[in-house]
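Hello support,

Our group uses your service weekly, and this is the first time we've seen a run hang past the timeout. The protein is UbiA-like protein EboC. I'm not sure whether the cause is the sequence or the server load. Input pasted verbatim:
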Amino acid sequence: MSYIRNKLLGYLRLMRPANIITAVADILAGVAISGFWLVSHTFTADWLLPVLCLALATGGLYGGGVVFNDVFDAQLDSRERPERPIPSGVVSKTQAVILGIYLLMIGVLAAFTVNPTAGFIALLTALAALVYNKWGKHLDVAGPINMGICRGLNLLLGMSIAGEGVLLQYGWLALVPVLYIGAITMISRDEVHGGKTGPLKTAGLMYLVVCLVIAAVAVLQHRVWETLPFIALFCFLIYTPLLKAMKEPTGPNIGKSVKGGIIALIVMNAAWATAFAGFVPGLIILALLPVSMALGKAFAVT
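Update from on-call engineer: The timeout came from a worker crash unrelated to the input. Re-ran successfully.
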């Protein structure tokens, strides 16, 4: 029994459960942006089924992506993070590859059950994740952009629930998570050995642009007062650890800033949902925050 338990825990550690919750929040935000949240049959079976399928899709895509991250980093992790499932021997590299393939397949197939557009976006997301894991992460500029594209596509995956028309109208919003995740990816490279304040300051400016864009969209949607509390909480969660890391850019402090940035994605998505669909969708997404934080204490986020 202990062998099976350790193996299952190893698989879960590879999949980063706390991060998957943030990916589900992307989907729900995309659903809100698409207008699908406001349709008359909200929370009926006809509404819930495609939403659940997209949630399953993003879970498979994100889980498979981070599993392959550890597969490609196995040799490096054996030196820098020997406690991780693959270098510690809890999960073999072959087992991890099989798990990653299964998860990506589930993600793509689940998306295709919603509509062809969603399936195509899921395919692009899986490809972008593999490209990042194999090559992108080693590139100073293209790497963070590559990682950001994965997250931007995830937001588009949520929007795709309402078809191609919504993507043409609001697809540009996917550039915001590209910028945000690009910033997090940029500073995450120093979370093991520490680094300089330059990348942290650049990330702070990129975060500010993200906050201003969300606020501007809320004004255009005439929901600025509903959205402001979410933006304020978002800023608190990202800037508190970032400012601490700027004062002392050690590996642990930068790691906390990265973790804070990832968890704060849920609040950012709650802000998007509120700006487009009102307070209730925002609160529903925000309810995922304590779940992700609890999982973040049990399983590594980065």
